[in-house]
């Protein structure tokens, strides 16, 4: 048995190792921030009102293998009575071509302020859920999501 490695084979191995390392770096690199666009979309949805954190739970995996179908659930702490209920829930993202992912209208007869969907993620980014309460106040929760295999890339995202 020959213990000597062919130089061409060594070069191939080195190239494959470099490609794998570069691919892993590209897959988990943080997204370039676009906070102004995200903040503007949320500000427009809230009509310029103050959006404060708390009372909203955005359940989305923080590490996603494939951005083509990411489960998202939003729960809002509310008694869902006629006097105190969630009127609407919106989901926004930082890096997809469209910042506004989904909007839901609720009322006290919904019984529970919970919505679920699946979304596509173009790359690693921040996802934000915003709830509009019946008194006109807004609550939110944000989660940073790392996407290994990106989806819905349209040009430079």
CATH H-tier superfamily: SoxY domain
Q: Just name the CATH architecture.
A: Sandwich
* Beta strands, count: 9
Percentage of residues assigned to helices: 10-25%
Q: CATH fold name, please?
A: Immunoglobulin-like
Query: Major β-sheet, in short?
Result: 6 strands, mixed
| Percentage beta strand | 35-45%
Helix/strand/pairing class, anyone? alpha+beta
> What is the averaged pLDDT score?
84
Q: Tell me the distance between the termini.
A: 52 Å
Summed up, the domain count is: 1
- Which runs of at least 5 residues are low in confidence (pLDDT < 50)? 24-33
Oligomer: single chain
CATH class: Mainly Beta
Q: Total helix count?
A: 2
Order of helices and strands: HHEEEEEEEEE
Q: What would you say this structure looks like, in words?
A:
With 157 residues, the chain is an alpha+beta fold. It has a single domain (32-149), classed as Immunoglobulin-like, CATH 2.60.40. The chain is 21% helix and 38% strand. The chain is built from two helices and nine strands. It has helices at residues 7-28, 35-45, and strands at 51-53, 56-59, 63-66, 70-76, 86-93, 100-105, 114-119, 125-133, 138-149. The strands form two sheets. Strands 1, 3, 5, 6, 8 and 9 form a six-stranded mixed beta sheet that branches. Strands 2-4-7 form a three-stranded antiparallel beta sheet, with no helix packed on it. The longest helix has 22 residues, at 7-28. It starts with 6 loop residues before the first helix and ends in an 8-residue tail after the last strand.
